[in-house]
Amino acid sequence: MQLLQKLVSFIICANLVILLLLPLVSSSQEHLKTTGNLTSSKNIIPKSSPKLLFEITFHGFLLWVSMGFLMPVGVIAIRMSHREACGRRLKILFYVHSISQMLSVLLSTAGAVMSIKNFNNSFDNHHQRIGVGLYGMVWLQALIGFLRPRRGSRGRGLWFFVHWITGTAVSLLGIVNIYTGLQAYHQKTSRRIHLWTVLFTAEVSFIIFFYLFQDKWDYMQKQGVILEPLRPTHRIISPGEKQKGSATESC
């Protein structure tokens, strides 16, 4: 019963999100016709269509914030929480993970709605094909996270494995799709993407390093601590102490 209530609440929230985001990304059929007539056979945006160029750039920015920033922040936060037993720090890391993932879902949904309404989705490139599967996996991951069972329940282990493997797949596909999006942007606009590719590669490298560094931090801290061996202490035991010890043993 509790699982069904969570599922119904999730569906209601998802519908509200879609209804709220649809008016924010407005476009008309007239705009699509004009942009379709302006584009050349090579799908290069001419200089006379700054609106479409802005929409493509804004779409890329939304997906970078969603998949390239918020999603890794949430992954690192939950990774850091594994080192915490309990307390305030654990709650903060959990809320950082939850809030960053919810914002990531909202922004990726806005980018998906923007793509469907404003762009020519012929699905003739890797970016659009990966994007379709990625949007579905993002909402599937949100649904899995929303249906989190209580700790100690029978299905908690299976839920954790599915949540982890789905989140890993979403993170990897999101990074790959940002690279393919940069290539699609270059093909559409003929603008250079070398600087953005280098910056994003540096960001991904730092995220991977910091993610792997979590397992080694405690080990590195322990390397600087010298554990002195326990030395036996020789102490003369008086006859009174012997009598007390024998009395306690008899009790």
Residues in helices, as a percent range: over 70%
Count the DSSP helices: 8
Query: What is the N-to-C order of secondary-structure elements (H for helix, E for strand)?
Result: HHHHHHHH
Structural class: mainly alpha
Strand runs, count = 0
User: What is the terminal-to-terminal distance?
Assistant: 55 Å
Radius of gyration: 28 Å
Range of strand content: under 5%
Shape: globular
- Stretches where pLDDT is under 50 for at least 5 consecutive residues are 24-42
How does the major sheet shape up? none
The average pLDDT value, as a whole number, equals 76
GO molecular function: heme binding; metal ion binding; transmembrane monodehydroascorbate reductase activity
Protein name: Cytochrome b561 domain-containing protein
Pfam families: Cytochrom_B561
Main location: membrane
Task: Describe this entry's structure for a reader.
Residues 1-27 form the signal peptide. Residues 21-221 form the Cytochrome b561 domain. It is a multi-pass membrane protein. Helices cover 76% and strands 0% of the residues. The two termini are 55 Å apart. Helix 3 (50-81) runs antiparallel to helix 4 (88-118). The model is unreliable at 24-42 (pLDDT under 50). It is an all-alpha fold and 251 residues long.
